[in-house]
Amino acid sequence: MILATIIPSREGELRQLLASMNRVPGLLDPLNTLIPFGRFARLHFARIVILDDQTLDDITVYGMPRADYPTYLAILGDCDGAIEDFLEDLVKQAGDGLRRIFAYCERYAVGTDLLAWMKAHNLATAANYVNWLGRTVQQVNEEEMLRQALEKFIQGNADSLRGIPQRQVRVAMKEFVANEVQAGRVTLTPPAPTPLGWRIRNFLHLLGMPILLLVLSPFILIALPFFLFQLRRCEKSDPEIAPRVNPDHANLLSSLEDHGVTNQFSAMGSLKPGLFRRLTMILVLSAINYTARHVFNRGRLARVTSIQFARWVFLDGKKRVIFASNYDGSLDSYMDDFINKVGFGLNVVFSNGIGYPRTNWLLLDGAKDEQKFKDYLRRHQMPTRAWYNAHAGLTALDKWRNAQIRKGLEQQSMTDTEIRDWLQLF
User: Fold this and answer.
1) Mean per-residue pLDDT over the chain, rounded
2) Could you give the residue ranges of the DSSP H alpha helices within 256-330?
3) N or C: which end of the chain has fewer CB within 10 A?
4) CA atoms of 343 and 346, how far apart (whole Å)
5) pLDDT (tens digit, 9 = 90+) per residue, 227-241?
6) Which of 302, 286, 293 has its CA nearest to residue 132?
7) How far from 151 is each of 28, 49, 86, 144, 269, CA to CA, in Å?
8) Distance from first CA to last CA of the chain, Å, rounded?
9) Distance CA 405, CA 426 (A)
10) What is the Cα–Cα distance from 101 to 114, expressed in whole angstroms?
11) 3-state DSSP call for residue 17?
């Protein structure tokens, strides 16, 4: 996530420049002349957002003055491999376009070392979620091509396949794929080995949180009653700010959505004032980051399967937070999925933001007031100026299905029940 302050007098020009990247509003030209995202073989999703927070006056309900933060430009991407390698590739292939864009930002001048500048303006995530850790762009593309080839084979040989046992059907499909691979029409690249350094760091991270909690457990037990007392005190007095969304704002957001089966969501807001809410948010996002990395990394975030990538990032001295996600389906179905399945999770995170519907013991109520929650979230949502999806038309469940097709094809032996279940994937 590259974050830069926009020169106020040039914001209008920047908006026009970013609009030129789209064929129509909400539909990016992947080979546009500024940043041709479609040329990057390791890029899953990318977006450009102008962080213009329309809720800055909300803090005045606490008797505090409005904080006039600058308007930021944010470029976010979800990529395979090391960020350093991707940034080098980005500068190499889109350097001129990036220079044109960053010319509208403060502290960027002609002759600036673009790569060093971008590294200096890169923000780390407070929490990051990947639907399936380790699944690369190359793997997704190859497995979709495999599925399409097999679907075509099945349709073209439906009569002959219908009259033979399922085990022979699988043999015929394996032989077909072997011939397609030999002819170069299908490619199934073996997954690259996970770097040893990453495996070591990940293992240490896996152990680190439980050990830290164990060491701090006596202090946590002592602090818990004070935390709960302060929590209830805040919950009873914190004001709600969830008016019906401005129709013009809602229409603008709607015009950028539902151009495919997958959508983008970008929202930001200010944390409730005081150290208590800030520390609570830090702890909550640390827990989300840990579980997303080590527990919920195989196709679901708790019970939700529609999110492909998501992240939370602190801004402005941890006084504000931006949330960005790539999800399948409509926004209403996305929010309903969370409300119905993990409403308590929404409360734990978003109730630390100013104006959130009132919670009860952090977990209860809040998002259960469906209309207030939806109005609150839509009000904090910002239009994404340019959005790239390398796998248009493929949901997270589609990618899972394709991976299972490949797995079943490469598996040495299968039971009759496993073969039946595998064939039902088609």
Assistant:
1) 96
2) 275-294
3) C
4) 5
5) 999 999 999 999 999
6) 293
7) 29, 39, 34, 11, 46
8) 38
9) 8
10) 11
11) helix
One-letter amino acid for residue 189 of the chain: T
- Burial tier of 272 (Cβ tally within 10 Å: 0-12, 13-18, 19+): buried
H runs (alpha helix) in 184-268? 196-237, 247-255
> Residue 420 and residue 198: Cα distance in Å, rounded?
38
**Whole-model pTM above 0.90?**
yes
* Helix, strand or coil, per DSSP, at residue 51: strand
- Mean pLDDT along residues 175-186: 96
Distance of alpha carbon 202 from alpha carbon 198, whole angstroms: 6
What's the residue count for the chain? 426
- Per-residue pLDDT, 163: 85
Give the Cα separation of 209 and 145 in Å (integer): 40
Percent of the chain residues past pLDDT 70, beyond the cut? 100
Cα gap 110→102, rounded to integer Å: 10
Among left, alpha and beta (phi > 0; psi -120 to 50; other), residue 26 is: left
Tokens 């929202």 found at: 267
User: What backbone torsions phi and psi does residue 77 show, to the nearest 5 degrees?
Assistant: -145, 150
Beta-strand (E) ranges in 72-115?
72-79
Q: Which residue shows structure tokens 């007095």? A: 237
CB half-sphere exposure, 300, CA atoms < 13 A: 8
> What's the rounded Cα separation, in Å, for the pair 305 and 124?
25
CA distance 112 to 414: 59
Q: Is 385 helix (H, G, I), strand (E, B) or coil?
A: strand
For residue range 206-220, list pLDDT tens digits in order.
999 999 999 999 999
Q: Is 29 helix (H, G, I), strand (E, B) or coil?
A: coil
Helix/strand/coil percent split, the chain, to 5: 50, 20, 30
Mean pLDDT, residues 291-306: 95
Q: Do residues 160 and 176 lie in contact, with contact meaning Cβ atoms separated by under 8 Å?
A: no
Q: What is the pLDDT of residues 117-127, one digit of tens each?
A: 999 999 999 99
169: alpha, beta or left, given left = phi > 0 and alpha = psi -120 to 50?
alpha
DSSP string covering 359-381, please? EETTTEEGGGSHHHHHHHHHHHB
Q: Which helix (H) or strand (E) element contains residue 267?
A: strand 262-270
